[in-house]
Design goal:
0% strand; globular
Length: 179
């Protein structure tokens, strides 16, 4: 959890084994024992984050099976991350540093995007629409990008109200379904 918090607050590039060891009260060698490289640690973080995020989203889907409620819950997760010390979604902050990531971390960033987009496709498909599967996937990706982007802009302003205002506009005139 300490490593995740560090990445969400300062980015993957600032993550160091020494700082992490200090934060959890162990020697750096103890962390290296479990994660020989920073790439191993980053990939494990991203994989676990994606699994936990998707587990939550699937619970939301199974509970509500309502497009608007599911998307609102999705949005609320990103908002909650901002509220916690102006942090970013782990997948989003890693994506911003993509070219600096080890290959195994890049794979996990792709996995995050793919699985969250798949979930959004499932949600969008709950109600009748006239989109073919390709258009539906593009719509889901637009929502994914819109929420990640709104979080990034709000973080840069250090103001969660900016996030709320952007998302409110998305419901009215943006990529979110009105019904």
């Amino acid at each position: 959890m300490a490593a995740r918090s560090m990445v969400q607050a300062r980015g993957y590039n600032s993550l160091s084994f020494r700082d992490l060891a200090t934060a959890v009260g162990v020697k750096s060698s103890s962390i290296h024992y479990h994660f020989p490289t920073k790439g191993d640690l980053g990939a494990a973080l991203a994989h676990q984050y994606t699994d936990e995020f998707l587990e939550y989203l699937n619970q939301v889907f199974d509970t509500w099976k309502d497009r608007r409620t599911c998307i609102k819950s999705y949005i609320d997760v990103f908002r909650a991350t901002l509220v916690r010390e102006n942090r970013m979604c782990l997948g989003g902050i890693m994506a911003a540093e993509y070219t600096d990531l080890a290959a195994e971390v890049q794979v996990q960033v792709h996995r995050f995007t793919q699985l969250l987009t798949d979930w959004l496709v499932k949600v969008l498909d709950l109600e009748p629409h006239d989109r073919d599967p390709v258009a539906l996937r593009k719509w889901a990706m637009a929502i994914f990008a819109a929420v990640e982007g709104a979080q990034l802009v709000a973080r840069g302003c250090d103001d969660v109200q900016v996030y709320d205002n952007i998302l409110e506009a998305y419901w009215v005139a943006g990529p979110f379904p009105v019904a």
